[in-house]
Predict the structure of Aldehyde dehydrogenase.
Amino acid sequence: MSDYKMLIGGELVEGDHAMDVINPATEEIFATVARASERQADEAIEAAATAFPGWTEVPLAERQAKVSQLADAIVANADRLARALTQEQGKPLAEAQGEIAWAEGYLRHYATLQIAERTIQDDADGLIRVRRKPLGVVAGIIAWNFPLLVACWKIGPAVIAGNSIVLKPAPTTPVTALMLGELCRDIFPAGVVNIITDANDLGGYLTADPRIAKVGFTGSTATGKKIMASAADGLKRLTLELGGNDPGIVLDDVDVRATAQGIFNAAFLNCGQVCLAIKRAYVHDSIYDAMCDELARLAEAAVVDDGLAQGAQIGPIQNKAQYEKVKAFLESARRDGTIVAGGEVIDRAGYFLRPTIVRDVTDGDEIVDEEQFGPILPVIRYSDIDDVVARANASPYGLGASVWSSDVERGMSVADRIESGSVWVNQHVAIGPHIAMAGVKSSGLGVEQSEEGLAEYTQLSVINVARGG
Ligand code: NAD
């Protein structure tokens, strides 16, 4: 018997297989969960397809009320969700509580959104209405860094727009998604929300299925490309939120201490496993040494521990494969630059690495060019604004970026030149359900959040009526 079951067709079901979930802070099994076979993935798609016509007929206000109820249920279960989130993902309990509060807030906002329909002509000659219809069955496929929040990013807009959904979490973080399934069972009509798990073997099965109308995906660029290829046959709709290599550009006029704290927080949130983390800091020559010293001081002071331990600020890396990947980045950083803080694997069970600051690296070095997705921050020296803008833009990614300056106008004029879906001034990862979030270049396709994001879960349809003569 597994500890957590899947939600298929309104029932909590055992898997044809089971899988163990490892706590990355201890490397011990902390739960055994149901895992779907292809037969069960097929059942989930069929349940969603069967539920879709009825769900589209449910008035928007009722669909909104259901999403609000899900937010209420998350609040009512916040403590056990937060604990499970820390145990499966590794993040400190306070961050897990923050993720749950975010999930609630996003759902509450989705529940206020209207499906924007417009009348563009209504006169004696005719009536033209631009309508927005739901698409059908959505496949939501997500990564392991924010398993509860991003599950809500897929479920909320999909069902508000009148679609049904099959959600599949990442294989290493299935628990909170399955707990969400337990809550959804008591709220949504059978089949509207289905949650299945896999061992990294069912994503392609879902995206290839002709009954799937849209794929909402959060994950790596490599997998995003595979999904795009797989979706081509049925011309499925896609929203792809992919990788990033966000630059933080620090101008010469900043308060070093305050800015270092902002950069540090944005680089090491969730142990650096954030699509929108600062992954390369460009610092002006005149303050380069001072900024490196301050970042190193913050890194040395950070408390790295099991996320359930009192006072933990940075937890472990989420899974062994990512841990090995980040350790390889550490070696290349050591080769190419100078490590001024961290750089050590912690001698204990769990996938722990101290937050690491590496200086004297530059573009062309692996730790600068690639997405490390872990607790290593390269700090790069620059002296010319045009040059740093060109270097920031030379990346194949374009998810987020930030410019730090005591002169906001000056910061904005540099921000304006950065090719990125989000560009912040004097902050980073400032996201919200009302703020459109997009990736340019290899960071993604389409938009999430806000009315623009909701529109991507609909199909535009025009009714054009002749009147008079
Ligand atoms: P991943 O692409 O390996 O896996 C993501 C999901 O895709 C998992 O559920 C996985 O099982 C599934 N999957 C694997 N192969 C598939 C296939 N062929 N078809 C369909 N689905 C498949 O990514 P990851 O390693 O879990 O996550 C890390 C990456 O995600 C990083 O690059 C990070 O930047 C990115 N990410 C982006 C955002 C964003 O909003 N832009 C948010 C979080 C993470």
Notes: The first helix runs from residue 38 to 57. The two ends are 70 Å apart (CA to CA). The longest strand covers residues 126-134.
